[in-house]
Each structure stands twice: as structure tokens, then as C-alpha cells.
Amino acid sequence: QARLVESGGGSVQPGGSLRLSCEASGLIFSHYRMNWYRQAPGREREWVATVNNSGRSTTYADFVKGRFTISKDAAKSTAYLEMNNLKPEDTAVYYCKAVRGTAEIWGQGTQVTVSS
Fold it and tell me: What b/e sequence results for 14-43 when a residue is b if at least 16 CB atoms lie within 10 Å of its CB, and e otherwise?
């Protein structure tokens, strides 16, 4: 059964950095486009970034451009979200999602808290 497990969340001060990981199992990782989303308390879940199947193409939401970097490592079946210059408004639960055609698989999420 396909499964995604996120890790790497935590608490950090404004301006700090974190790297989130999303390890996939039970699927052919190179066939999937990988995405990161986030959901802050009381808000809708929002898209953050996408990396395509090959890992060569990435897209970002405007509010993270220049600060976050998405990548994937096929050998480790893992996607990453490198987050720099974190702001309090980045506080949220971060989820990864694997997509292939109409098939979608979500992880359970990892909490990121940015506070002084």
C-alpha cells in the first residue's frame, strides 16, 4: 500500500531554517509528481510547491518564492522542502502529496512553528 511519511518539522525563530522530508513507500516514486501543501489554524489548506516526475521542473506559490526549495531524490524515494528565512506566517501543518494522473496520496503532516 502506498504511503507518505513527513518529518523534519519543529519550532524555529523568525529568520531560521528547516528541511522537511517526505519519504514514499509502496509506489514507483519516479512516476509521481510531488507537492507540498500547508494548513494554518482556521485556514484552508494551500499549495506551496511542486516538483515534477523527473525532479527537473519546480513551481512555487508566490509567498514562498526565493525562500523555499522543493526537490526529490529518486534513490531515496524522498521529496524535500528546504525552508529558509522563515516567518511567523509560515506556521502551519505541512503535508506532502504524490500525484500520478488522477491518483493522489497524502501524508499525515508535520507541524512547523515559527515564533520568537
Answer: eeeebebbbbbeebebeebbbbbbbeeeee
